[in-house]
Amino acid sequence: MSGHHISTDKTLLGVAGALFILTILTVGVHYIHIPEPWSIIVAMGIAIFKATLVAAFFMNLYWDERFNTMLFIASIAFFGLLVGLTLLDTLFRPEVMPAF
Amino acid sequence: MANHSSSASHSRFMQHHFVDADQQFDAAKMGMWIFLVTEILFFGGLFAAYIVYRLWYPELFTLASEELNTLWGAVNTVVLIGSSLTVAMAIKSAQLNQKKNIAINLGITLALAAVFMVIKYFEWTHKFHLGIFPGKFYAFEGIDHPKANVFFSLYYLMTGLHGIHVVIGIGLMVWLLWRSMKGHFNSEYYTPVEITGLYWHLVDIIWIFLFPLFYLID
C-alpha cells in the first residue's frame, strides 16, 4: 500500500543531515548581513526548502497518496489568499490606522 | 456481512467498519492531514498578522529582534529537527517490528521536546525579568520605538501557541511510549505512531519558519 513506505536509515539520516546543514547555513547568512530585501528572500527560501524536505521525506508525502499532498498544498494556497487579500487592503491605505 | 476476507491484519485494533487494516490506516492518515490543514490556517492568521506589522514597521522588527538570542533559537531548531528524526525512526522501527526501538526512539523524542521547552522557559523568563511583556504590560525601556510591544505581542503569541503544541506533543509521546511498552505496536498496527509523527513534523515545520522570522532579522 501507498501508505506503508518504509524509509531507510540512509534516507532519514540524510534528510536530517541536510536540515542541520541548512540551519547552520541560514544562521551563517544572517551574520554576513546581505542587504534587504535579499536577506528575507534567502532566509525564507532556505526555510521553504527545509519545510519541503520535512513534508516530503519525514511526513512521507513523496511516497504517499497524492490526495494528502493536495490537502497540504491547498492549505498553503488558502494561506496565500489570506495574506494576499489582507495586503491588498493594508498596503494601499492612504494612512495607517492611527491606533495601531 | 461486510467482506472480511482480507488477510492483511488480525490486529485487535482493527475496527469492524473498515474493509481491512490498510483502509483503516489510510483513513486515519487522511483525517490527520485534514486536521493539519486546519492547524496551518490556525497559525496562518498569526503569520498574516506578522507580515502586515512587519511591512508597517520594518525598523521596529530589526530593532526588537536584537533582544532575541540567535544562538538559543538555532539550538532549539537543531533540537526539533533531531526530534523529528527520532519520530521518523520510531515509525520505521514499528514497520520493521523492532518493538524495543519504538520505545527507545519515542523516549529520545520526549527528551528532546523537554529540552526545547526548558530553553523556551529560560528565554521567556529572561524577557519577563527585563520587563518585556506582551501588549499593555510591556515595561522595557531598552528599545527606542513607540510600538515595541507589538513585536513582542506577536513573539509571545506565536512562540506561545507553538509551545502549547510542543506540550501537547509531549503528552502524546508519553501516551505512545506507554502503549509501545505494553506491546501494542507492530508492523501490522502502528497508526497512532504514524499520525502523531505527522503532527510532530508539522510542529517542526512551523518552528522552521518562526526561527528566521523572529531570530534572524538583520
Mean pLDDT of chain B: 93
Tell me the radius of gyration of chain A. Answer: 19 Å
Low-confidence stretches of chain A: none
Q: What fraction strand of chain B?
A: under 5%
Q: Which chain pair shows the most residues in contact?
A: A-B, 51 and 50 residues
What's the rounded overall pLDDT mean of chain A? Answer: 91
CATH level 1 class label of chain B: Mainly Alpha
Biggest sheet overview of chain B: none
Broad structural category of chain B: mainly alpha
Low-pLDDT runs of chain B: 1-9
Secondary-structure-based class of chain A equals mainly alpha
Mind telling me which CATH architecture of chain B this is? Up-down Bundle
The CATH homologous superfamily name of chain B equals Cytochrome c oxidase, subunit III, four-helix bundle
Query: Remind me, CATH topology of chain B?
Result: Four Helix Bundle (Hemerythrin (Met), subunit A)
Task: Describe the protein.
Chain A: It is found in: Cell membrane. Chain A: It is a multi-pass membrane protein. Chain A: Pfam families: COX4_pro. The complex is a heterodimer of chains A (100) and B (218). Chain A contains 3 helices and no strands. Chain A is mostly helical and 100 residues long. Chain A has one domain. Chain B has one domain: Cytochrome c oxidase, subunit III, four-helix bundle (Four Helix Bundle (Hemerythrin (Met), subunit A), Up-down Bundle), CATH 1.20.120. The radius of gyration of chain B is 21 Å and the shape is elongated. Chains A and B meet through helix 1, helix 2 and helix 3 of A and helix 1, helix 3 and helix 6 of B.
